[in-house]
Amino acid sequence: MPNKKQKIAAVLALLVYVFSVLSLFAWLTGKPALYVNLTPFITNNIYPVSSIVLLLLANSLLLQTLQEKKYQQINTISLVLLAMIIAGIEFSSVAFSNRDFSINAYLLSLLPTTDTPKPLTFQVAAALVLFSLSCLLLYIRNFYTVYTSQITQIFIISMIITVSYGYIYNQRTLLEYTKEIGMTFFESLLFILLSLSMLFLKTNEGFLKIASGNSSGAILIRNMLPVIVVLPLILGWVSYLGFKYNFYSERFGAALLQSVTVMLTASILILLAHIISFQETQRKKAERETLRMQQDLAHIVRVNSMGELASGIAHELNQPLAAIQLYAAATQRMIEQTPENKKIDKNLESIKEQTQRVSEIIKRMRSFLRKQQPKVEKVEIEQCVDDVITLLQHKLYQQNIRVVKSFDYPIPMVKVDSIQMTQVILNLFQNAIDAMRNTLDRPSLITVRIYSKRRILHVEINDTGSGISNNEAEDIFNTFFSTKGEDGLGVGLSICRTIIEAHNGRLWFESKENEGSTFFFTLPLA
């Protein structure tokens, strides 16, 4: 489904589409639409070849927002390529002054109009080529092509706004530079609508993704764009009204206009500096608060995870404690009877080992539950995996789940917070265990693979569980979304992704329903 901004793009493209169809229909009936002279300087007709190219481009934009993805790319690019060919032929006829190649002149010769058959102006032909090329770059779905397309659209809008202002003030803008009117008022209007449609189509990519961010540069761009559009209009009206009502002479007015422009620009820049400074302070404050809340939430999840593991850990502690009791009782009997040093030493050594085992389990629990600031240090990721397997040993035994470790040694160390990494791996293991709870038709198996490639450590955790459905896959990393119903908080995977990305890594998954899932994450080497 298209988002709100894509719907705006579709509406703008639809307006261009409707005006283009109206223009073509009017040419066919011999009564060119949009041919009303608003002022002595303005001619407003849209020539047939412009209407055709605009129609194709608007249609491609509509398909891009509304059509199913499997047909989207082929159909939109086909329409854009056709528009580019038509615009290219027309541009060539203008550039080489060869009317025989002009599609516009040919169409006018066939239509029942009084217009003299002629090619488009250089400006319109160039604009149509630029639009077609920008559309093509926009659909390639690459950051740099989308970025280039959006920057091109912003420059086109700036140029066409200048032309539109010229018409508003009864000034033939292009005439001063090119000795021809060059672009009609309604052509410039449709070009602006088409440019805006293209910009709204991909607001989450390219230049607009940067402009919509929270950086100082993004804030400056957002605040300056309205000024760029409005300031020329205000200054133009000040100049126009001053001359009209004889407030000042033309020479004095020009000097006054320049002074006002400088003062307004300086005032706006000072105001923007204050706005940016305030917003930057607020942004940093919000980021600190968000980070604190994420750490608190991660701590709550760890406590909750340990609560779920409590019965298993109690079982793990009972085993060594029972063993200690037996060894101690046996040693006591030996001492009471005839002490044999070797047997007593062996029992005492066993007591020592079991005590260390209890101590290690408690130490891991305390370390995992402790609320502390992230401590980044060199860590062996396989040790985190082993710690998780130890914590989950009883749960794995209960569900008859086998863990297979496939490690490509030597495994390089990574610079991470070991507690956070243990939390990520524990969450992925618990999800795998839950996914295999009801899969009785095949062996329950968790496979952990660790390897390094190109200075990146790769970790894969695969299960043979029920898998993730296509409907669930889209929301799997969203906060408070859970596939476990009332049993899940829905924050585990969201926190896992936050932790991995905070360590400059990436977390994603692949899954087949009723076959199992594999979660992958990467981390840069230390």
TrEMBL record:
Enzyme nomenclature, EC number: 2.7.13.3
Protein name: histidine kinase
InterPro entries (alphabetical): HATPase_C_sf, HATPase_dom, His_kinase_dom, HisK_dim/P_dom, HisK_dim/P_sf, Sig_transdc_His_kin-like_C
Magnesium keyword on record: no
SMART domains per record: HATPase_c (SM00387), HisKA (SM00388)
Catalytic activity: ATP + protein L-histidine = ADP + protein N-phospho-L-histidine
Keywords: ATP-binding, Kinase, Membrane, Nucleotide-binding, Phosphoprotein, Transferase, Transmembrane, Transmembrane helix, Two-component regulatory system
Pfam families reported in the protein's UniProt record: HATPase_c, HisKA
UniProt superkingdom: Bacteria
Transmembrane region(s): 7-26, 46-64, 76-96, 120-139, 151-169, 181-201, 221-243, 255-278
GO molecular function annotation: ATP binding; phosphorelay sensor kinase activity
Residue ranges annotated for the Histidine kinase domain, each copy included: 312-526
PANTHER family in the cross-refs: PEROXIDE STRESS-ACTIVATED HISTIDINE KINASE MAK3, SENSOR HISTIDINE KINASE
